[in-house]
Amino acid sequence: MIDLPEFDVDCFIEKACDFIKQKVEESNSNGVVLGLSGGIDSVVVACLAVKALGNNNVKAFVLPSSTTSDQDLFDANLIKTMLDIPVEYILLDDLYENFLALCDIEYLPSENKQLAMMNVKPRLRMTFLYYFAAIYKSLVIGTGNKTELYVGYFTKYGDGGVDLLPIGDLYKQDVKKLAKKLGVPSSIIDKAPTAGLKVGQTDESELGLSYEYIDRIVYMYVEKEMCDVEISEDLDISLNDVKKIIKLINQSEHKRLRAPILNKDASNN
């Protein structure tokens, strides 16, 4: 089975810190604001931000709801202590329920309602983060990794609504290597990744494959430009599984691009 390309973890940490500092300085900001979920990605980004800016310039917010696991809350608090950063806790449930009640319009089609409801929580979190970022004159630092970005496993203008993405070029496997180097507790590294939008939900159960395979499919399709049959044969998994991930990559392209702007000059069409 093909391996992901190796990367120098120590070199990346140095580059990531320089990147974070540069973006903060370019925007004349005081620091960064981030959503701390207790998952590996947000914890790694919190560690990088503190290393780059110092703990006084990193403001973290835990924004749980009834579908957030006790383990994630425990891990978020663990990182708060480990990094010695200010963390605020804001429960979303009342606001979320009030929003849905306001949107409970008669005769709405029900086909896509569940997905629409799930996307509300990440967009509420984005709104909170930008509110506090404006108050602290800070940037919202994102926690998305390359695998999630390419398969579209994020909410547009939700957890995708950020100012910079320091681990956006790292596959999930890379993030784990980085987490070990940064001293992230093994309980967080080994925990099943979850978006926390449904009770008991995990990323891998929703995507239908483990990140070990999803990482490689993204790498082989996007970077190596291999076709679905070649990927299926190399990874020894079903062609349908490969096609499913490739379909996610292609269908989610709009989530990775700036909104298209119509050129008023017809001659440039």
Describe this structure in words.
With 269 residues, the protein is mostly helical. It has 2 domains: 9-194, Rossmann fold (3-Layer(aba) Sandwich), CATH 3.40.50.620; 208-260, Arc Repressor Mutant, subunit A (Orthogonal Bundle). The chain is built from 13 helices and 4 strands. Strands 3-2-1-4 form a 4-stranded parallel β-sheet, sandwiched between helices. Helix 2 links the parallel strand 1 (31-35) and strand 2. Helix 2 (40-53) crosses helix 7. The model has no long low-confidence stretch (mean pLDDT 92).
Task: Summarize the SSE layout with pairings.
Layout: H1 9-26, E1 31-35, H2 40-53, E2 58-62, H3 70-83, E3 87-89, H4 93-102, H5 113-136, E4 138-140, H6 146-151, H7 172-181, H8 186-189, H9 203-207, H10 211-223, H11 228-235, H12 239-251, H13 253-256
Parallel strand pairs: 1-2, 1-4, 2-3
